[in-house]
Specification:
- It is a single chain.
- By secondary structure, this protein is α+β, with helices and mostly antiparallel strands.
- It has two domains: 52-111 and 148-201, L,D-transpeptidase catalytic domain-like, CATH 2.40.440.10; 115-146, no CATH class.
- The chain contains two helices and 13 strands, in the order αββββββββββββαβ.
- The strands form three sheets. Strands 1-4-3-2-13-5 form a six-stranded mixed beta sheet, with no helix packed on it. The protein has a four-stranded mixed beta sheet with strand order 6-10-11-12, covered by helices on one side.
Amino acid sequence: MLGFRSPYRLNTLRSIRHLALLVLSSAAFVSCGPTGSLMPHPTPRRAEAVLYQWHDDGGPGKVAIKINLRTQMATYTRGGRDIGWSYVATGKEGYGTAAGRYSITEKIVDKYSNKYGWIEDEYGNVVDDDASPGDRVPSGCRYVAAPMPYWMRLTSYGVGMHAGIIPQPGEPASHGCIRLPKPFAPQLFEVVQVGTPVTITY
């Protein structure tokens, strides 16, 4: 008869529909799940380099500093005990930092270079990042002396240790001074004194 379906055929059709719905819902669940392609993937972050470690015990003995020009690293001792290390950035090519035995002769918290700086426009944009006080300054611009916070002088001709940028750990970058990691410089400044020995070697 027309339009007649047996109960067996109806049950089979229902089972097929039910199975199809299960498969489709399972596929949708998998594609939207934690491993599915629709989930956002976090952008991997570049690990920041560790520039120093400091564990001064404040105990007996005086602080001494050794700087290795080859590795661009400094080690710090107190009474012969290791109290820390840091990366440094010494003189780049043409401005090499000289090896030798020195001692700190001056400490100034807020110092500016009388030799180096940069030129910036009226909006603060740097137009020359390697300038000296005698350089021609374009109209509308100004010369800015390079800051050298937590200054610890080593020579009479302007070489010392101070807080600064270390753009590539292990690579020289300065005009001859010894740059220290910015967060670390105040800690070292606090424990050294005029007369603290500084040895610079290859």
